C-alpha cells in the first residue's frame, strides 16, 4: 500500500489491523466443540471444560453412557447435547436408582448458562441433575430431555441459607419428560422439579408422569418452588398420575408471587395410596393460579387449595375441574369463575392426560374472565377465540384437540396397578 503523505492510509491500516485482532480474539473466545462416543471421552470432555474455564459444547453420539461418578460441571457456558437430536438415543446414567447407589447425581451443575439438550438422564441415587444455586448457577436451560428413575427428586435446584442472595435465577425447563417408568416411585421422597430460592424460572410444555409414592407418605410435587422462591412461571405442562401436581411454597418455607396457568393435570383412580391435590399455594402470597384444567378420579376431595395466613393477595380464576377449590387455614385472595363440575365427556382423551375440550361446552367456552397476562392457551393458541376467554387450559376451536408440547407421554400403567 502506498503511504499518503497525510498519513491517512496509515490510519486505515491501523484500523484494519485492529479489526483483524478483534476477529482473532472473537474466534479464540468462541465455544470449543468436543464430540464423544464413549463414557471415558464424555468424562474427559467435562474435565476439559472445567480446566479451560468453560465455553465448551459437548456433542454426544447415540449410545448408553454408564458413569462411575457424577459429571461435575463447575464452569459457565457448558452445553451437553445429543448429536442426533433424538433424546431417547443418548442415555447418560448412574449405576442404580437406589439409596446405596455409587452415583448420587448424574450431573451436578455449579456454573451459569449450562445447557442440556436431547439426552436422557437416569438412575441416580439422588437426582438426575442438580443445579447448585449455592454456587450461583444462573440461567440453566434444559430442553427436550428425559429425566427419569432417580431415588430422590429428578431435578433439584439447591440453596444454602447461610449465603442469602446467592441462588439460581432465570432457569428454563421446556419440552422434557419427567417420569418413573415403573408407574410409581421407589419411595416417598421423590419429585419432578424441586426448586429452592429460585427466581424467574420458567417451566413449560413438559410432561410429568407417575411421580407417586409407594408407601409411608405423599410424594413431593411434580413441580415445586418454595423456600424463598419468587416469581416463577409454570405453564402449559401435562401432569399425569402424580401424587401432587404443582406447588408454590410450603408451611414456614414461603414462596412469593409467580404464575401457574394453562396446565392439564389428570389422575386416574389407580389405587395410588397418597394421591393428593393438583395445585397448592402454601405460604405463597401474591401468586396467581388461572386457566388450568384438572381431572382427578382418586379419593382426594378438592383440586386446588390455598392455605395459611401468610397466603394473601392470591388470584385463582378460570380453572376447570371435576373438584372444587378449597380455602384452608386463613388464606385469602380473589377466587372466582372456577368450575368444579367437569365430566369426562367434556375432554378429548382424559385417560391420556389430553384435557382439550371435545366440543364447545356451554358454561366453559367464552365464560371466563380476562386476566392481565393471559394471551394464549396450552397450545400457544391466541386467546380469546370468539366472544370471550374460555375457562380452563384449552381455548376451544375445532382444530385444538392435540398436545401442545413435544414431551411425549409413554403408555400409562393399567388402572388398578398394584401399589406396594
Instruction: Report low-confidence residues grouped into runs of 5 or more.
Output: 1-29, 403-420
CATH class (first level) name: Mainly Beta
Using the coordinates shown, work out and report the CATH topology. Pectate Lyase C-like
For the sheet with most strands, the description reads:
12 strands, parallel
Question: How many discrete domains?
Answer: 1
The first-to-last residue Cα distance is 84 Å
Fourth CATH level, the homologous superfamily: Single-stranded right-handed beta-helix, Pectin lyase-like
Specify the CATH architecture.
3 Solenoid
What integer value in Å does the Rg equal? 24 Å
List keywords for this structure.
420 residues, disordered N terminus, globular, twelve-stranded parallel beta sheet, single chain, mainly beta
Secondary structure layout plus pairing:
Blueprint: H1 8-29, E1 32-36, H2 39-52, E2 56-60, E3 63-66, E4 71-73, E5 78-82, E6 90-93, E7 107-109, E8 115-117, E9 120-124, E10 129-132, E11 141-143, E12 146-150, E13 155-158, E14 172-174, E15 177-179, E16 193-196, E17 202-204, E18 207-209, E19 221-226, E20 229-230, E21 233-235, E22 238-240, E23 244-248, E24 255-256, E25 259-261, E26 264-267, E27 279-282, E28 288-290, E29 293-296, E30 304-307, E31 314-317, E32 320-321, E33 325-328, E34 333-336, E35 347-349, E36 354-357
Parallel strand pairs: 1-2, 2-5, 3-6, 4-7, 5-8, 6-9, 7-10, 8-11, 9-12, 10-13, 11-14, 12-15, 13-16, 14-17, 15-18, 16-19, 17-21, 18-22, 19-23, 20-24, 21-25, 22-26, 23-27, 25-28, 26-29, 27-30, 28-31, 29-32, 30-33, 31-34
Antiparallel strand pairs: 35-36
Amino acid at each position: 500500500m502506498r503511504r499518503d503523505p497525510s498519513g491517512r492510509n496509515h490510519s486505515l491500516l491501523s484500523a484494519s489491523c485492529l479489526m483483524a485482532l478483534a476477529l482473532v480474539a472473537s474466534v479464540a473466545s468462541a465455544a470449543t466443540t468436543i464430540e464423544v462416543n464413549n463414557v471415558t471421552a464424555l468424562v474427559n470432555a467435562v474435565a476439559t471444560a472445567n480446566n479451560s474455564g468453560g465455553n465448551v459444547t459437548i456433542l454426544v453420539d447415540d449410545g448408553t453412557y454408564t458413569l462411575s461418578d457424577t459429571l461435575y460441571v463447575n464452569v459457565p457456558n457448558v452445553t451437553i447435547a445429543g448429536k442426533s437430536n433424538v433424546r431417547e438415543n443418548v442415555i447418560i446414567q448412574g449405576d442404580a436408582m437406589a439409596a446405596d447407589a455409587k452415583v448420587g447425581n448424574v450431573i451436578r451443575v455449579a456454573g451459569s448458562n449450562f445447557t442440556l439438550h436431547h439426552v436422557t438422564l437416569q438412575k441416580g441415587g439422588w437426582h438426575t441433575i442438580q443445579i447448585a444455586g449455592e454456587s450461583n448457577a444462573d440461567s440453566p436451560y434444559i430442553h427436550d430431555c428425559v429425566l427419569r428413575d432417580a431415588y430422590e427428586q429428578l431435578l433439584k435446584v439447591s440453596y444454602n441459607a447461610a449465603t442469602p442472595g446467592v441462588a439460581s435465577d432465570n432457569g428454563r425447563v421446556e419440552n422434557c419428560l419427567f417420569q418413573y417408568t415403573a408407574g410409581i416411585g421407589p419411595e416417598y421422597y421423590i419429585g419432578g422439579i424441586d426448586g429452592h430460592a429460585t427466581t424467574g424460572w420458567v417451566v413449560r410444555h413438559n410432561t410429568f408422569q407417575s411421580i407417586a409414592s409407594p408407601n409411608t407418605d405423599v410424594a413431593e410435587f411434580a413441580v415445586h418452588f418454595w423456600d424463598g422462591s419468587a416469581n416463577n412461571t409454570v405453564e402449559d405442562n401435562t401432569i399425569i398420575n402424580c401424587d401432587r401436581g404443582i406447588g408454590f411454597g410450603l408451611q414456614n418455607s414461603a414462596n412469593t408471587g409467580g404464575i401457574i396457568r394453562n396446565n392439564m393435570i389428570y389422575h386416574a383412580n389407580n389405587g395410588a395410596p397418597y394421591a393428593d391435590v393438583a395445585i397448592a399455594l402454601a405460604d405463597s402470597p401474591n401468586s396467581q393460579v388461572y386457566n388450568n384444567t384438572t381431572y382427578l378420579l382418586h379419593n382426594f376431595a378438592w383440586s386446588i387449595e390455598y392455605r395459611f395466613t401468610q397466603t394473601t393477595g392470591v388470584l385463582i380464576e378460570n380453572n376447570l375441574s371435576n373438584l372444587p377449590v378449597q380455602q384452608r387455614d386463613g388464606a385469602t385472595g380473589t377466587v372466582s369463575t372456577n368450575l368444579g363440575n367437569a365430566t369426562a365427556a367434556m375432554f378429548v382423551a382424559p385417560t391420556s392426560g389430553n384435557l382439550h375440550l371435545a366440543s364447545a361446552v356451554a358454561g366453559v367456552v367464552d365464560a371466563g374472565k380476562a386476566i392481565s397476562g393471559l394471551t394464549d392457551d396450552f397450545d400457544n393458541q391466541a386467546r380469546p377465540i370468539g366472544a370471550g376467554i374460555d375457562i380452563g387450559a384449552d381455548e376451544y376451536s375445532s382444530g385444538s384437540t392435540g398436545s401442545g408440547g413435544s414431551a411425549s407421554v409413554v403408555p400409562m400403567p393399567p388402572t388398578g396397578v398394584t401399589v406396594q
